[in-house]
Batch of 2 targets.
Target 1
Amino acid sequence: MNIKELITKKRDRKALSSQEIGQLVKLVCDPEVPDYQISALLMAIFLNGMDDMEIASLTKNMAYSGEVLDFSNEPGPILDKHSTGGVGDKTSLILVPLLNELGLKIAKLSGKGLGHTGGTLDKLSVFDGFRIDLSKNEIQRQVGKIGMAITGQTEFLVPADKRIYTLRDLTCTIESIPLIASSIMSKKIACGAGHILLDVKVGSGAMFSDLEHASMLARQMVSIGTALNVPTRAVLTDMSVPLGSCIGNALEVKEAIEILKGEGDLRLRTLCFELAARAFQMVNENIEYQEIDYQINRAINSGNALNKLKVLVEAQGGNSEYIYHPERLPLALHQSSVAAPNSGYISRLDARKIGMVSMLSGAGRVKKEDILDLGAGVILEANFGQYVRTGDPLASIFASSQSKLAEAADVLQSAFEISQQAPGDLPLILKEY
Ligand code: URA
């Protein structure tokens, strides 16, 4: 089947056979096939969906579109943790060194920012020189040596995801269960993960704002992992408000460093520790929660988890000076703040809008070729549920031009709602599979 026949079949709501999906993934990896035809196919999948067999086949074919890591000679299980993406979600920067200090090995393939959500690879690019294009041998060697690696898709590792991921961002085909599930799980399979922990975000800043769709995505990914005999666990967590108080690449690195020092935003810290506990439990089944809690606190309080971030950054060629000197991290020159128009409780703090503000400030890509401004972004001066008085600062935006600042500031005020009644608590963990 050629690409036009595949597009037509999907457009007409017909299921593709495994053989046709194999052909589809080959065409995705063929640079002679133009972006517009791959994009049309993605839109047809976005609109008409895929059945379970198609999703499983797409995932496998994407995983094997390049090389697959082999950790069979590596003692101990290899774990991978992945978030479906959110606003202010810097959990991977915290969890990889923390879990490594707890004795776990992690080989992780991450992505760049998608839409209004940030990407781990963009955040890591703050450490000048940090390589996100490690080869199969380099990843295996690094995991053997220091027990962790975070890198990106390349033309050798999940090349199908590399192309699809970029095109989805440009063609408004991000929020699709088959496309998200295959993107994430193909990377986990290609990485040779022995255990997979998924953080599926739910809320306005996530891929899906409702629990029903997020649950469908979680179940789909867990069933792909289970079918491949890889223990897979999914935790659905709130993303109706941003995670932490910093959004933007260097700003998020700074906040991640705070958490690794045992400081910083309580909600973000709690989520990281809850996810770390679950990951630890996946590979140490009989361990008591109290013991995990003790080990996590020891890893943080000793400073060893923070030092592991330094080890990771240096192993991948990055400049690690910021880790012990976060005050030197880049910060965009122009700043503007938004103040509370009246007194009351912050009853809504729209994560999607804050993600848009961060993107407009220069921290995310509006177009594929945009170069990120690593020092741009947003600092929330007040958070959800907090009482503010008229004129109190709500948030500050950082951008490297007045025009970007003005564009971002226009959206910022509308992200906040202030009311006279205190809002109820926002549960952090909504469901688990
Ligand atoms: N993370 C990924 O790797 N892929 C997606 O589609 C969404 C989040």
Note: The domain at 78-167+186-324 is CATH 3.40.1030.10 (Pyrimidine Nucleoside Phosphorylase; Chain A, domain 2).
Target 2
Amino acid sequence: MNIKRAYTPPAKLYLGSAYYPEQWPEAGWKEDIRQMQVAGFNVARMGDFAWSRLEPAPGQFNFDWLDRAIAMLAEAGIDSVLATPTAGPPAWLVTQHPDMLPVDKDGRRAQFGNRCHYCVTSPEFHAAVRRLVEALAQRFGPNPHVLGWQLDNEYNRTCYCPRCQHQFQQYLAQRYGALDELNRRWATTYWSQTYDAWEQIPLPVGPHNPGLMLEHKRFITESYRRFQRLQIDALRLHLLPETWITHNFMFWHDGYDHYDLSEDLELASWDWYVGMGQHDYRSSGAAHDLVRGYKRQNFWLMETQPGNVNWKPLNNAIDKGGTRLMAWHAVGHGADAVLYWQWRSPLGGQEQYHGTLLDTTGQPRPFFAEAQQVGRDFAAASRLLAGARPVAETAILHCPASRWSIGWQPHHQDFDYLEHLLHYYKPLAAANIPLDILSADSLLDGYRMVIAPALLILTPGRAAALKAFVANGGHLLLTLRSGMKDEFNALLPLRQPGALAELTGAEVEEYYALENPVPVLGEGWQGASRLWAERLKLLDPATQVLARYGASNGWLDGCPAITQHAFGKGRVTFVGAYLDEASQAALLQRLLAEAGVQPVLVTPEGVEACRRVGEDGEEILILINYTHQEQRIGLPWRAYEHLRGQAIQGELRIAPLDVALLSHA
Ligand code: GAL
Ligand code: ZN
């Protein structure tokens, strides 16, 4: 069973934190909740890691305390999100089924007590999860104060036990049908890898056959997806129609395909930790846009740091004022909720030193005041922003399989798929261009410009979608390492960019990993390419050369580095170079102008302008000043500023580290 319902955007913004009432005497909950009200919180997430309190012995459920906590919170106007506690299986379960502990690459079984200590394919674990989640669903599913459910917590382990290997082999048998087909797709005649029985196929514990490596990632995805579906099926029947199900994903975690897992969820959410240092909005916005792209709708920021984390070599606090800007940055990129992790410092456990709202005594820490400010902000902004979402005319395509494939064989130790994607994202973010980050398998209707960074894996479906996009007038930007491999991670018997050569009017004659940057000479600019350079060859006399390589390794000298080609009603720019920042910004400016893409607003450096658009088309601007100076911004229209409650005509002044929320007056 898999009844999926749409996520209905809430009628307000949510602010709150993770709350672990089970760790504290019940007599103190009232005071906790009073403090939450003082902070302006309206949501609490509970239950993750509470398995041993919810089911102290097999089949013996103890849910009353959670019922009381939900009710006390509700009475104070605070809704609940419940997390299934499956990332913390209790000791009794592990004692019963030691075989449910995951095995690492070196064959060692995990120890109890460090969470996520489960093999995701263990049938005994599944049975225990089903029993508990069903019982939780029966009890709390009909509760109108439970807004939604988070499944598990940050899926992350990969298990190498014999059962996982066996299931991997079964997965392959189903996918390929016949071993001959697998042998052909994986080119196993190479190094005599030919398989004549499914049982011979290993789990890759290090570098291995590229086809096998990619299928293993798909198998991990599929294993988590089955585990997730099991929980969804246990929950669904008992939930109210408007109750959503989510999972809290981690940053740019690359353990599995997030798009596949998101298909079965109504809502995407994620956990944003800066960790060490301070955040840079030009790159952190990409992680928000990524998560918004999982479901192509607004998301929840299910966890974020109140001050500092505890798991970095240096756990500095975010500078004063910074987390307020982080909250607004998240909202600007489509968050409908911001939840801190966590409420109060636990006396024990592995996370004793993590930032919280209350200290061990139950008194507010200095950070509390900043959360309170966000609470006031959200109260003022809530109604305006409810139902509004970011809208972009430019999409960046993201392909987990290309990222994995390049990561396994980078060919240049410093080449990183993600860094390359951000090389395109950052200058656009700095120019306040709204961006969507989408699966490379998405429909592309409605965009003016699509950027496909290092789209290594090119399936016929992707090629057809890109062709239709350009034929209908879209501007496509293809970069280096494009169109080189098929979905089995095998090289195509075609020159790059494979089936897209028709669009680019150019192909790659050769690619070079670079020892040193090579000069790139454009029209009116001189730059350089680092790490990588592709020597382009024109296939159509109408293809325009936008830049050529200067003298370098001899092979590249004078050859086209960047080309442009008209196709149908659209245009394709093909970038074979990894440009320096100034040249990259100049190139992107030109392409934006050609595609007619407009920024939200032109702002001074260090001021971000985000836009959300209401269902009625109302435009709402969020301006964030990350600098330590007052900034002045010319407004194109008469505006109303909602955080201060003022009408503004002409010039807006934003104080250092401050935010403005504008709509048309
Ligand atoms: C997250 C996790 C939380 C908490 C937090 C600390 O990854 O979901 O439970 O451990 O990190 O930063
Ligand atoms: Zn396993």
Note: The two ends are 49 Å apart (CA to CA).
